[in-house]
Amino acid sequence: MHADIVVLPGDGIGPEIVSATLPVLAAVAKRYGHSFSFAEHDIGGIAIDRHGEPLPAATLEAARKADAILLGAVGGPKWSDPNAKVRPEQGLLAIRKALGLFANLRPVRPHASALGASPIKSHLLEGVDIVVVRELTGGIYFGDKNRSDTEATDLCRYSVAEVERVVRSAGALARQRRGHLTSVDKANVLETSRLWRDVATRVMREEFPDVTVEHQLVDSMAMHLLSRPRAYDVIVTENMFGDILTDEASMLAGSLGLLASASLGAGKVGIYEPIHGSAPDIAGKGIANPYATILSAALLLRHSLGLVEEAEAVEAAVSAALDAKVFTTDLAAPGQGVDTAGAARAVIERLG
């Protein structure tokens, strides 16, 4: 098959980890007889510098026409002034909204060989296999914002339809996996969470009666996620809660550099990116961990291109590289890590 993939390297380590991932996709295409074309466009801080806005019209137009989008990272200290009217993160929020990508899938599956990198006790991590489904285009990140000299407000708003569609996506995923869904809210305090819980309960009862459902308050979920992570299968939650919980969940895997994500909507197109940020402290040093971006490319193959065997081959190659202790500096003992390109080469070698 042929696929047109838009590449958005972005800022910080984004260009490095994306550059390391494209040869992996090229190797997949060669091995399985596919043809992938890559078109690079600007987003985030680099787009502000070059075009005066974080999401240029040309980038969005290319994304609309693409079969899939691979993204690195956005942001950095250069653009971090909290009073700035134009910020890199606005580009990421805008492209998700424009493409209707409302469900962010974040798998958390610790690799046995990397358990030592996690601050969590290894016996708690064995057998952990979680997917967090984070609502992506609603909530406080997109609500009306106001600020004066003496106060500021951010509106958190959710509609029934927004909650229904993301819970429906999570329910379908849970049905394909182990049949257990945990819906996370703050229904003891927030009206949006009370709506969330009512809608989630109804959707799961009417459409997924075969899936076991539990509700967790977000503060207790933050505790249980680290103390008994094996208890969870699919977790669905609103935008801000999901953003926070998945960064916490990265500690289960040992590093943010191991966690991929897929931002999906009603169609096939999606944005695939590591969950970590632009890591400006190590940008340009060639030591960033590319595994999360490579695993995001595997999600791209699976969800947007429908290439399940190819996706599994990439995931197996990453696992094999980790089993061989091909660790970047975030996972390795001091002075023993491989560079970004070396980790990517290890994956390609194990693709065959």
Task: Give the helices and strands, then pairings.
Elements (H helix, E strand, L loop, with lengths): L1 E9 L3 H19 L2 E6 L4 H7 L5 H9 L2 E6 L14 H11 L4 E6 L13 H4 L4 E6 L9 E3 L4 E3 L5 H17 L3 E6 L5 H17 L4 E6 H10 L6 E4 L1 H15 L6 E5 L5 E5 L16 H13 L4 H16 L16 H12 L1
Parallel strand pairs: 1-2, 1-3, 3-12, 5-10, 8-9, 8-10
Antiparallel strand pairs: 4-5, 4-11, 6-7, 11-12
Helix pairs in contact: 1-10, 1-12, 6-7, 8-9, 10-11, 11-12
* β-strand number: 12
CATH H-level superfamily of the largest domain: Isopropylmalate Dehydrogenase
CATH architecture of the largest domain: 3-Layer(aba) Sandwich
Instruction: Give the oligomeric state.
Output: single chain
Mean pLDDT: 95
Report strand order across the widest sheet: 2-1-3-12-11-4-5-10-8-9
DSSP summary: helix tally: 12
Helix and strand string, N-terminal first?
EHEHHEHEHEEEHEHEHEHEEHHH
Report the biggest beta sheet as strand number plus sense, adding barrel if it closes.
10 strands, mixed
- Output the structural class: alpha/beta
Summarize the amount of helix as a percent range.
40-55%
Question: What is Rg?
Answer: 20 Å
Query: Could you give the distance between the termini?
Result: 20 Å
Q: How much strand? A: 15-25%
Overall domain count: 2
Question: Stretches where pLDDT falls below 50 for ≥5 residues?
Answer: none
Enzyme class: oxidoreductase
Pathway: Amino-acid biosynthesis; L-leucine biosynthesis; L-leucine from 3-methyl-2-oxobutanoate: step 3/4
Cofactor: Mn(2+); Mg(2+)
Family: Belongs to the isocitrate and isopropylmalate dehydrogenases family. LeuB type 1 subfamily.
